[in-house]
Design a protein that fits this description.
It is a single chain. This protein has one domain: Alanine racemase (TIM Barrel, Alpha-Beta Barrel), CATH 3.20.20.10. Helices cover 40% and strands 20% of the residues. The protein has helices spanning 5-22, 41-49, 60-70, 87-93, 103-115, 142-149, 174-189, 208-213, 223-226, and strands at 31-35, 54-57, 76-78, 96-100, 120-127, 137-138, 155-162, 195-201, 218-221.
């Protein structure tokens, strides 16, 4: 019989807290996202009741139905690859978009956000491992994308997101998390206008403890909460 969702969340919270304390951080500074891709409504409601901080989804159409049925008791973040023609839906549905990786998408999100009378918090998605099969801007292009987004008044850059290459040993992912944190720190030192650079969304079921030790402020956990899809 699968573990109850509340028990899974409690265990992840405990492991997150231990990782935070090992690295001299406060456990309350790390937010737990439940990744809801392909998860039914009842299990999502159980996760909300058990106290996750954020719900994240990869697909506009799937998330739209869930949000319509469940509302926004807690924030919803979009974490998947976003096509430009879906920007208007993302702006209406989500509280943060974590996967901005190109200027044309940023421009369209800005246009749609201003039309809705809002400022959309966003993260820059970085393809930290330069993998051809993954979305995200290359590490070398992040500074220029941030610079060109500064004039987009409908967006506020809050930080960075990444998904490193997959490894059996989470320690092998650690250098990628460290690289993202160091990039964030360099950008934060520039004190760019309307750019907070306070969020690092990184770490998933198999490697979130290493991510926390390297500075993650959001960890994105699906399988560890809901079990196999």
């Amino acid at each position: 019989m699968p573990e109850p969702i509340a028990a899974n969340i409690r265990r992840i919270r405990e492991r997150t807290a231990e990782a935070a304390l090992r690295s001299g951080r406060k456990p309350e500074d790390i937010r737990l996202m439940a990744v809801t891709k392909s998860v039914d409504d009842q299990r999502i409601r159980e996760a909300i009741a058990a106290g996750v901080d954020i719900l994240g989804d990869n697909y506009i159409q799937e998330a739209r139905g869930k949000i319509d049925r469940m509302g926004k008791a807690i924030p919803w973040h979009f974490i998947g690859h976003l096509q430009t023609n879906k920007a208007k839906y993302a702006v209406r549905l989500f509280d943060m978009i974590e996967s901005v990786d190109r200027l044309d998408l940023a421009i369209e999100l800005d246009r749609r956000s201003r039309a809705e009378g809002r400022v959309m918090p966003v993260l820059i998605e970085v393809n930290i491992g330069a993998e051809a099969n993954k979305s995200g801007i290359p590490l070398s292009g992040v500074r220029e994308l941030v610079r060109r987004m500064l004039s987009l008044e409908g967006l506020q850059i809050k930080g960075l997101m990444t998904m490193p290459p997959w490894f059996d040993d989470p320690e092998q992912a650690r250098p990628y998390f460290r690289t993202l944190r160091e990039l964030r720190d360099r950008l934060a030192e520039e004190r760019l206008p309307d750019t907070a650079m306070e969020v690092l969304s990184m770490g998933m079921t198999g490697d979130f403890e290493a991510a926390v030790e390297e500075g993650a402020t959001i960890v994105r956990v699906g399988r560890g909460i809901f079990g196999s899809r």
